[in-house]
Design brief:
mainly beta, Methylamine Dehydrogenase, Chain H, four-stranded antiparallel beta sheet, 30 strands
Length: 374
């Protein structure tokens, strides 16, 4: 892991806005070489972008819900690309997972195993193993290019899955909401699910998840809290609350003639893989950069095994001073480019899963925040 990664400053005037979706942008992924970005939107379309020329190369439009159509017919909820850029997976409210050829954006196959909206997709690192999950708690494992499901761990939790992150080993970590907020590690060879709680009675859902490695997981929650889990502990080893600035009050309107706080969830979290750099986004449009803090391994032979284990789990995150930015709208997704040029931000007038808040008066689009990394 690379430490002491330095970002000089965030210059708001240099942020690039790419407009190509008619509605809120809900998800983004970037190819491993950092050349292309792929986005999904609530307009049911999937777009491919060139990050060198800032040109939209392909746009696969969505169709009318309930009709036969070659592409998606519902809002796109998640998108992921394999490490070798051979397969692109997108999931939607239409219960489908579509596997694309990322080069020409042609449909390779459609996976119709799920019976409810598919909320998350993710590839295992350096593999064609694909994980898919839906709002009924079902997590399925696929091995591209096979169309048959490799493993269906559907009846294990019955808790809606909101996010997925594939690991290096044959595992993935998911975050859950209604029915049991927390995270689960799905172990494919053993066919078991290990659950980790938030230990917070006020928590209603863990909205997003990022795996630093196979042992450390970072989740953002609806209580404006960021949790850090270690795989050897059943509850968080570190908690930050509030993770983002406290939201302002929502003024009264005809539909809601009372004053209430604006919803302030941690709606997205990601990291620059192989480094200690983390970024989180909120439903109020605020982005905060963090640094992962881990104890240096003890080299002394006098250190006992129990002490080593305690040292390994002493993981935390700290804010990077001055590295935050407010954009307005909903931050529906975040992704770092592996070449360290950009942080891609999905900005929308609405949350990716629904419409619970008044529409934000911003432009829907993919934002590219230049990173002055040294």
């Amino acid at each position: 892991m690379t430490y002491t990664l330095q970002i000089k400053c965030l210059e708001k005037e240099k942020i690039i806005l790419l407009k190509g979706h008619r509605k809120s942008v809900s998800c983004v992924c970037i190819s491993d070489d950092g050349k292309f970005a792929y986005t999904g939107g609530k307009d049911s379309s999937v777009n491919k972008w060139d990050l060198n020329t800032m040109v939209k190369l392909y746009s696969m439009p969505g169709g009318k819900r309930g009709t036969k159509y070659p592409y998606h017919t519902g809002p796109i909820l998640s998108i992921a690309i394999s490490s070798d850029s051979r397969y692109l997976a997108s999931s939607s409210m239409d219960h489908l997972v579509i596997i694309w050829n990322p080069d020409e954006m042609k449909v390779c196959m459609k996976l119709s195993h799920h019976k409810v909206p598919v909320t998350a997709v993710s590839f295992r690192h350096h593999s064609h193993m694909l994980f898919t999950a839906d709002c009924s708690g079902r997590v399925c494992v696929w091995n591209m290019p096979l169309k048959e499901v490799l493993q269906d761990q559907g009846a294990r939790t019955n808790i809606e899955v909101l996010g997925l992150c594939g690991l290096i080993s044959e595992r993935c970590v998911s975050c859950s909401g209604f029915g049991g907020p927390g995270v689960c590690v799905w172990k494919v060879p053993e066919e078991i699910c290990v659950q980790y709680s938030t230990k917070n009675v006020l928590e209603s859902s863990v909205e997003c998840i990022y795996a630093v490695n196979d042992e450390i997981f970072i989740g953002g929650a609806s209580t404006n809290t960021i949790y850090v889990w270690h795989s050897s502990r059943g509850s968080p080893v570190f908690t930050v609350s509030p993770a983002h600035p406290v939201a302002k009050l929502c003024p009264p309107s005809e539909s809601e003639p009372f004053i209430r706080p604006v919803a302030n969830w941690v709606s997205a979290v990601t990291g620059l893989y192989g480094t200690d750099l983390i970024a989180s986004g909120s439903s109020t449009g605020h982005i905060q950069f963090w640094r992962l803090v881990q104890p240096q391994p003890e080299r002394s032979i006098e250190v006992k095994g129990e002490q080593q284990q305690q040292s390994r789990t002493q993981v935390s995150i700290e804010r990077i001073p001055g590295l935050n930015i407010s954009l307005g709208g909903f931050i529906n997704g975040l992704a770092f480019s592996s070449d360290r040029r950009y942080l891609a931000v999905c900005l929308g007038q609405e949350h990716r899963f629904g419409h619970w808040e008044p529409r934000r008066h911003i432009k829907n689009g993919l934002l590219l925040i230049p990173l002055n990394v040294s």
